[in-house]
Specification:
The chain contains five helices and eight strands; from the N terminus they run E-E-E-H-E-H-E-H-E-H-E-E-H. It is an alpha/beta fold. Strands 1, 4, 5, 6, 7 and 8 form a six-stranded parallel β-sheet that branches. A two-stranded antiparallel ribbon has the order 2-3. The protein is globular. The protein starts with a strand and ends with a helix. The mean pLDDT is 97.
Length: 166
């Protein structure tokens, strides 16, 4: 089984963790890589969000209002060699950041196994499983994993990832 992780994550100032060099979701993506040998693809925005947390929340809200598909620095167009696709990010106002949608809209998920994941500070997995079922047409979407962002750097969180991956 060949695996790929498609994710978004933002370093900088964030809720509950202060300034971090590496975003919370990226920590989870790296756990997945450690346990499965997955390749990582980060949805890296061409225009990064602001360093400042409050400004970033406003920018993310604007993307939702516009149903935007923010441009990425690089794109992935072919996932045909992968069997299992992990898709995740932080919860931004109850949803995955729209950069993830930008990437998902380009891909053909027919026959793939999709595992949703999210980091959050209270919303849990929010609407992520439901949205990925709609967006990843033809895929089998399995049960998702939600981890609180401020606890991803714990042995407990790492164990949760280990028990969840396929
Ligand atoms: C723009 C923005 C919106 C957020 N909205 C929510 C939210 O609706 N619910 C929630 O539980 N956490 C919310 N958070 C907290 C993040 O989901 C959480 O800190 C996450 O772990 C950040 O992941 P990252 O470091 O990989 O970017 C928000 C954070 C930001 C920056």
């Amino acid at each position: 089984m060949k695996s790929l992780v498609i994710y978004f994550s933002r370093p900088g100032n964030n809720y509950a963790v202060g300034y971090v060099e590496k975003g919370n979701t990226e920590v989870v993506a790296e756990y997945i890589r450690e346990f499965t040998g997955a390749d990582l693809f980060k949805c890296d925005p061409l225009r990064p969000y602001s360093e400042d947390y409050m400004t970033c929340t406003e920018e993310a809200m604007a993307y939702q209002r516009q149903n935007a598909r923010p441009a990425l620095k690089t794109y992935l167009d072919d996932i045909s060699s992968y069997d299992v696709i992990y898709i995740g990010g932080p919860i931004y106002w109850g949803e995955l950041p729209y950069e993830v949608y930008t990437e998902l809209d380009r891909l053909d998920f027919k026959g793939k196994i999709v595992l949703p994941f999210a980091t959050h500070e209270g919303s849990g997995i929010a609407n992520v499983e439901r949205v990925l079922k709609a967006k990843c047409s033809g895929a089998t979407v399995r049960k998702g994993l939600a981890i609180q962002g401020s606890s991803v750097r714990s042995e407990f969180a790492k164990k949760q990832v280990k028990n969840w991956v396929v």
